[in-house]
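Hey,
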Amino acid sequence: MAVTLSENAAKHVSNYLAKRGKGVGLRLGVRTSGCSGMAYKLEFADAVTPEDIQFESHGVKVLIDPKSLPYLDGTELDYAREGLNEGFKFNNPNVKDACGCGESFNV
């Protein structure tokens, strides 16, 4: 089981944590939400909790709660600019369907 960051995503997270002046990495998860059933959670982590499952990608620590890992296994988190928009993009091989707005998914 693994979750990775693209090189662009890792650079963005590292730069943000440096500007912020604190943090140990990026915390990913899923929650029940939206029209397709699940939505991603993404936040900067200030500490590692005992239940966190840890991965490291391009020097950045990725923390995931055990309940979310089956839904995120194999996911690569990318950071991309498309025109005037920029942001994180989840490349998740487990997704079977997503809503039209792109905010939720199901597996």
